[in-house]
Every structure is written in structure tokens, then in C-alpha cells.
Give the backbone structure.
Amino acid sequence: RKEVEQDPGPFNVPEGATVAFNCTYSNSASQSFFWYRQDCRKEPKLLMSVYSSGNEDGRFTAQLNRASQYISLLIRDSKLSDSATYLCVVISGYSSASKIIFGSGTRLSIRP
Amino acid sequence: NAGVTQTPKFQVLKTGQSMTLQCAQDMNHEYMSWYRQDPGMGLRLIHYSVGAGITDQGEVPNGYNVSRSTTEDFPLRLLSAAPSQTSVYFCASSFSPPPASGGLYNEQFFGPGTRLTVL
């Protein structure tokens, strides 16, 4: 089983829709969580950190569910420009044994 | 402030050739790393460095060498290229190595990538 798993999609939704996707992780000692966005043939860029209490940045909401070991990303009022691959990132372990693990990404396509 | 730069952007090699992918950052970041990205596999860590003079292996280190003689530069060397090394390579840096203070101290800044094809 992969340490971090994402539904690869693609999710194909109309402009203005709300879309959500999850990322599950296997190491219960995981400490930090992030969502990155990667446009086609570009490098990943940080979208937002995921805090224990959940956090919101404009149309984007990230949540952490430690009991079920997953993080989620909700996008409201989706725009054409939201089309991209969304990567979840989990940092697990402590000190020198800490690892940064990237999910393989969920592709999102917004149609007019 | 150029951020993280990588050269070359594209490269085609023949099996058995060697080459060095260059990576530099101007943000005085301690932590630098190299990833490869293959379809359906996500980003896999090749090597990383927590500071000048210190390097360590990641998940898929075989066939690659690194060095970190300065804070700014972290080149990746392919010793004898194989078709299995055809991939997109990303260099990344962050202020601190994980987990440190967590949060945005661990934000990874990526270079634009190098698309490598080995024939």
C-alpha cells in the first residue's frame, strides 16, 4: 500500500461547481500536510498548508481528519483557471528520519 | 530573486552517457532535494541535502550522485544513463529540513524542471 494515496481522476466539472477530493495517508505519526498545485508541464507550487482545525483561503478549504487519516481539499465556485493537478504532501516521522511524501496527484479539469 | 533555477530544460542522452543537471537557489535555504516525476508515480525523492557538505539518499538513489559544496548549488549527476532514467527531474529547496518547525518553513520551492530522455 502506498504511504500517500490520491484518486488520480480526472475530475471533470462545469465552471461554478464545487468539487472536493481526498488524500489518505498510512502513517498515523504524520505531522504536517500540504496541498500543492501543478499546472501542465510546470513545477508544483504550494497552494495551502492544512491545519488541524481546518483552514480556508478564498474559495479553497482544506481539512484534516486524523482519526480516518485523510486530508481533503474543497474548491467552491470553480474557475477555468483551477484546471490543474493537485498534489497532497505529507511529512511524517521525526528529526532526521522525517520524510516528505508526495501523492501522485488528482487531475481536475473545469469545463466552460 | 531568481528562486530555484535548473539547467538544462531539456536533454536527450544515449544509454551509457553521463551528465550533470544543475540546480541553484538564491534564498539561502538549508534544505535542497532532487525528485523525479513519472506518470502515475508522483514525485519520488532521489537525494537530499540538509546543508553544505551534507547529502543523503532518498527513495530512488541508484544511478545518481549529488554533492553540496555551497549552500546555493546542488547538482545531480547521472553516472551512466539508462532508459529507465527517462523522466522529469525537479530540484526543490526549503528554508528548513522537515519537520523542523513545520508549516511554511517546510514549503518546497521547485525549479522549472528538466525533461530528460535516454535513448
About this structure: The mean pLDDT of chain A is 91.
